[in-house]
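Hi everyone,

Forwarding the result from last night's run.
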Amino acid sequence: MAANSVIKYGIIGVGMMGREHLINLHHLRTEDVAVVAIADPHIPSQHHALDLAKSYNWPLKVFTGHKELLDSGVCDVLVVSSPNMTHYEILMDIINHFKPHHVLVEKPLCTTVAHCKEIVDAAKKRKDMLVQVGLEYRYMPPVAKLIDIVKSKALGQVKMVAIREHRFPFLVKVNNWNRFNINTGGTLVEKCCHFFDLMRLFAGANPIRVMASGSIDVNHKDERYDGKVPDIIDNAYVIVEFDNGCRGMLDLCMFAEGSKNEQEISVVGDIGKGEAFVPESIVNFGTRAAGRAGVESSKAEDDRIKYDGLHHGSSYLEHLNFLYAIRAKGEKAPAVDLEDGLISVAIGVAAQLSIEKGRFVTIKEVMNHE
């Protein structure tokens, strides 16, 4: 690829998130990118994507399956935004294909630790491909600002990370695939791998063990799909212990529409404390020495964002950063790599297992168990 040549994207899975990627890439067209193909067996999703692309003057090749798209050879980069349970097969096919494709795969990487590990191992043999995992919460302006504060050591040694997500229930997806653990990996994998990734980033360490309590208390209880009742939990508390002594806690509630902020993130070190609020996009920072009166509050913004979309501009920045990595021709690693994807899933799997077993679950246990 010449430095200024158009980079051709294909999107595998053009449901709600796939079309969100299409819109983001349209807003990146000044960076010489174009979506040229989609693959999805669901005809209504195809039509929605085609309507979008038509409004952008982007002619699309349409495939019903990812293998046909791969064999067509029309793409340089693939975005995998199909349902969670399809990621493993699709990624293995992409990695093992003779033509190299750079890949941005939506979170979670896979629904099981075993499948994530297989992907990690397979990708090591493909030095001609970059694979980035779509843990884009890192790019939300207030979260990115808090990451910078932590990296600057302004908080000192991080000791505690608390993340609260109080939000609306899961949205309706194609064929209601997201209503069942077997398809999603469970709520704490599907939704919360984002937060476990952030905890690890803030802690600057790897997880050792997890304790969780959660259940399905309010949402989806009156829903039936082919006679089956949804089994995804709608609330949980999760404690994660890290190998440097730091602890993380997640407070998840998915029937909390009456919240001012969907995410509230607190990072406390031995010197100070930082907080990020989404979608208010406010960051607070204070030190123990200055006390309550010395807490500074500021708005977090990023002038590069041309499209806010569903995730407050983070998907746009994710694509921009991945594009820089692609154009650097191997000199720049993906910002969120497969190891990050694997560990975020492992914490979620451990949390789901902890709820089931009613005990602490070690990361070692889930890494070796599957």
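The mean pLDDT is 96.

Cheers,
N.
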